[in-house]
Write the structure tokens for this entry.
Amino acid sequence: MFMKLIQPRRFHPLKTLWVFGVLIAVLVYTTLRAAPGPDTPSWSGKTMGSTYSIKLAQSTLSEKRLDELKQAVETRLHEIDLELSHYRPDSEISQFNFSSSTAPFKVSASLANVVRFALDLNRQSGGDFDPTLGPLIDIWGFGPDRRLEKIPSDEEIAQAKMLTGCEHLRVTDANEIQKDIPPLRLNLNAVGNGYGADEVARVIQSFGISNLFVEVAGEVVVRGHNPNRERWRIGIDVPSPGHLPGEKLEAILHLTDLAVATSGDYRNFITDEKGKRYSHIFDPQAGRPIIHNLASVTVVASNALTADGLSTTLYVMGAEKGKQWIEHYPGAAALFTLRHPDGTFYQVISAGFETMTDCEFMAEP
């Protein structure tokens, strides 16, 4: 048998040291990138002219995956801004509003679904919720310019009302929105923040997280439990313009797998030259800001889009009509906070609200 003598390789200490160094560097990099992240990460940022905040419980994400999640949240919020923003001329809704065409206008599937929800809520509420009030919102100083030079006259209001109405708007099966009067303008501010909160929660859940708190401009979605393995505790502010958010609470809700939204006249308002305050929530029939003794409405529902839209709807209806109406709406309940003539508050709750929220009212609302 023929045998070949194999000579041993010559030992090269520098080459061996170089290979060893590379292996160590790769090991260190991999270890650091796979390092476990915090158990209860939280962060916040700015979006859609307001802010958002997020908190997770019992997170199993590595530092790398947590960074990826944060970027995914920012990306989705940026996409939503490009869909809904009235302040960006390049947003889908701005391009639709500025267009004089009555041809079908292609939009993203998600925006089309939001418009479908808004039109459905308009029908269910008998017109008390109306996403086509752009012209009225503008003449009252709540548009992008945010300026009220004078109270609109009855004639100006009547003219603006002629440019509104959900009967002039439809959504096609191909995710197109279409108006039959050129000046019609959509305004989805009454549901946009809730929609944003839902979308952020969806992104987080796609990363395998089941215990989360998401707040976008005050509208909240919670899933699972908090870091103490209890239901999430959500504070409801006293509806007074003299208090900062969270400074004085009228109630604490204990929630899991629900969303909560509040509408009222105490945060977003303008004043005329005489100091009279006007709310940003409109009576679609009158074409004027709502003025009544209802200070705020808080709604709990399975998702924030619904809670956001319902809170505005109920505020327009008022406590008596709103309470009767919401008690026939499946999977939702409401807290109405009303003003006494002396400025103090009292609450009216719909059936199911205490059961859904285990609501804890403060001693002095």
The chain is about 35% helix and 25% strand. The mean pLDDT is 89. The two ends are 100 Å apart (CA to CA). The longest strand covers residues 294-301.
